Amino acid sequence: MTQSTGPGLKIAIFGAAGRAGSAAVAEARRRGHQVTAIARDRSRYHGVADEGVHLVEGDVTDPDTVAAFTAGHDAAINTTAVYGEGTDPDTFFPAASRALIKGLTQAGVPRLVTVGLSALLPGPDGTPGMDAPDFPAMFKPFCLAHGAGLEVLRAEGGALDWVWVSPAGDFDHGGPRTGRYEIHQHQAAQARISYADFAIALVDEALEPRHQRAQVIVS
User: Which CATH architecture has domain 10-218?
Assistant: First the structure.
């Protein structure tokens, strides 16, 4: 699948200082869209910084912050995550989902694209990746916390049009932008996708939605 094109729109991107978030900012700007880049710590943002990027500092778990920074936007992308940073993932992911639901609804933003983990998804045999015998046990609590955020979207998403996008396996750290990605039916532990190509999928789903209230697996 290739990237979409279209007139300049406005996208709010949470987690903009991270690798997936900064790649999404770059992809949106590549297409001529305006971006509000939202980071927990502005000093950690090293992505695209031009007249089309408005960098702000904010907390994705605060609905008032979400509403304030997304008002007037066409879509929001959430790439935030916490792991080993002094924040409890069990609290963070459900709180972020609830804040996004409330804040985006209040701001009138119709579309949310949020990044999920492939380990939660079933492989061809129907077994989630995190339940595979060789999956590192130390990462399973983090996966379950991530999944709790997804369950909040499913249970409380209401009228919000959301999609949960995951790499089929893992990221190809440092991989190039090929301009393409594929949608899969199952998790595939060995599959890899670059952050730049993953960002294409995120921006595609934000501005030309193909999946509603569903999990999408890409590589």
Answer: 3-Layer(aba) Sandwich (3.40)
